[in-house]
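User: Quick one: structure for sequence A, then sequence B.

Assistant: Sequence A:
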Amino acid sequence: MNKQLTIALVAHDRRKADMVEWALHNAETLSQHKLVCTGTTGGLIQEAFENKSIAADITRVNSGPMGGDAEIAAMVVKHQIDLAIFLIDDLNPQPHEADIQMLLRQCRVHNVPIACNRYSADLMITSTLWDNPTYQPTEPKYVVFERK
């Protein structure tokens, strides 16, 4: 991939090991992009990369419960995020559920691809569309469809 992206990486506590493993598996690709991570997730990825001598541009925002999900959602609204990977713990309730839903909603509203599992993350990060100069994603249309 030639285009440099800004990629958000977020993982709930019980998915952090999964995220670190995924990031290491994709370290060669991720190291070519700007990463924005929630606090603890970013720290774990940074440590894992340093242990493998992988240089990466990682910016850490607050942890999710302390507003990190909301910070990343605001970056999505400002068109500062190209791709989001959010490994969600669907088996346990989260105290900041409203922020989680806001981040997911803003990605949908602003047409930012968001992967919520490793398989979709792999598909999105390896897509050839990132470097296709003729591909332009269309803006979402929020209109009532009328049948003719």
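Sequence B:
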Amino acid sequence: MIEHFKYHNTNCFFMKSGTNGKLLAIDAGWPCTLYEYYRELKTIGYSHDRIAWAVVTHFHMDHAGLVSAFIDEGITCYVFEHQQESIDAMEKIILKNHKEYRTIDKRRLVSVNAEDSKELFASLGIHGTVIATPGHSPDSISFISDEHEVIIGDLAPVNVILPDDVNNLACWELIRSTGGKQIYPSHAEPFVL
């Protein structure tokens, strides 16, 4: 079951391990807001020490701004191979407004291939997988739970996609083909596909 809270108009999502009760964070909040993020986590009944792992739907500052802080906190942060190239561009934008921001030590990220994500998550007691959904940005992924819940990040809503937007249409077709039903966007309320 996916749980979430919202702060600064961005939803942050969590899956609880069936093995040890630890949390997988899906998206890692805004830069330089770690304690605010932790306070919001308490509103859904968890303390910050429950977060053991993190993935991000894409490397934009409202989704991955806390990755460096997470690593410093001992949280294992996974990065999918096609996301690596997007980190520097995000950090360049963050550093314009947040001089105190500490850049991500990429050597401390755990690189994963999206095709191997189901096996990885199963080893953590999390039931789901990741698929590449590059409709919003080339590094975007969606997380699909075995219960057909889908965290889509900033993928464009189905009802606003124009017929010639083959990239976004293909992403939604892929989500449908996996059986995705309950959709969790990052900046809107959940809906049924």
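The two ends are 17 Å apart (CA to CA). The chain has a mean pLDDT of 96.

User: Thanks, that's what I needed.
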